[in-house]
Design goal:
The structure is a single chain. 34% of the residues are buried. The chain starts with a strand and ends in a 19-residue tail after the last helix. Strand 1, helix 1 and strand 2 form a beta-alpha-beta unit. The chain is built from nine helices and seven strands. It has 320 residues and is α/β, with parallel strands linked by helices. The mean pLDDT is 87.
């Protein structure tokens, strides 16, 4: 069993792969730890897969390749790499040489201090300021504010994890950038370190401004899963009570206006609006109750606990 697993998603990076592999070999020789390198080819249309096959032949002891049938996206590639890795420590990094493998020892040293997740921060980022850096800064601020997990650079792939910090959740959509948030939700200790970032030498960036919209939509899902996945009645019931309260106050206003100003209730559009809010409120509460039943069915059918255990401490002496 290797101690360290390096997971690298690959999509059309044929020119970068040999250079990346050489840099990784140089770093791992200095670590003096058992390691493996898991490449995940995300349906590349160039010769990336052929290059990866040659890397496996050159170092079959350490290199493994998972090849997708088609392009499934970076999140799916990262999830597959984690699933096919075996190390106690997992380090993710990009294949485009913008992440520097020389930073891996820094991440590992932070893990040795007792952290479960170490996130890279590309403080001096070498990307287009308008289309890449500025949207990233705005998204990082929004994610930190919404989730309460404050990191400067959620989009940096270069991160190190203890394997047990990655258990208990699956990745969908563009949610690989939210892994620290999910890890924090099960009690992982997280820190951040500055890492090097290099300008792309070969190929072109695979993502643009359209990715920001996907991240924002996934943020809604993450917020719901973190705060309401186990108690959806808090969300739907809270909204329902608010709707009923608005409708009730509107009806009270109409009643008082009818009593003191002799204004007809049924002739006002506020009456229909109030009735609509009350009906929506009851429907929302009922949806919350249905969601509660679904949550219980989900946990009990799969024997999923609603808690996570870091460790069990006990004496070696057992009672007979």
């Amino acid at each position: 069993m290797p101690y360290l697993s390096l997971v690298v998603p690959v999509y059309n990076e044929e020119e970068n792969l040999p250079l990346l592999f050489a840099a990784i070999q140089q770093v791992t020789r200095s670590l003096k730890k058992t390691w493996e390198l898991v490449f995940v080819d995300d349906g590349s249309s160039d010769k990336s897969l052929d290059v990866l096959r040659s890397l496996v032949k050159s170092d079959p002891q350490h290199v493994r390749v998972v090849a997708f049938r088609r392009n499934f996206g970076q999140t799916a590639a990262i999830a597959a790499g984690i699933d096919h890795s075996e190390g106690e420590i997992i380090v993710l990094l990009d294949a485009d040489l913008q992440n520097d493998p020389a930073d891996i020892p820094l991440l590992l040293s932070k893990l040795d201090e007792g952290y479960d997740v170490v996130s890279g921060w590309r403080k001096d980022r070498k990307d287009n300021a308008i289309t890449r850096t500025l949207p990233s800064v705005m998204a990082n601020g929004l994610i930190s504010w919404v989730t309460g997990v404050h990191l400067h650079d959620y989009g940096c792939t270069l991160k190190a994890y203890r394997r047990d910090a990655l258990e208990g959740f699956r990745l969908y959509g563009e949610m690989h950038r939210f892994i620290p948030v999910f890890a924090h939700s099960i009690g992982a200790r997280i820190t951040e370190v500055e890492v090097h970032h290099h300008a792309r030498r070969f190929g072109k960036a695979k993502y643009g401004l359209e990715r920001t919209l996907k991240v924002l939509l996934d943020l809604f899902t993450v917020k719901f899963l973190l705060d309401y996945a186990n108690k959806p009645i808090y969300l739907f019931g809270g909204a329902g009570i608010s709707f009923i309260a608005i409708g009730g106050l509107t009806l009270l206003y109409l009643f008082l206006r009818r009593t003191f100003q002799n204004v007809a209730v049924l002739g006002s559009p506020l009456f229909l609006l109030a009735v609509m809010f009350i009906i929506l409120g009851f429907q929302s509460i009922l949806m919350g109750l249905i969601a509660e039943l679904l949550v219980r069915t989900y946990h009990e059918s799969q024997h999923k606990p609603t808690y996570t255990v870091r460790e069990v401490i006990r004496s070696d002496k057992r009672k007979k």
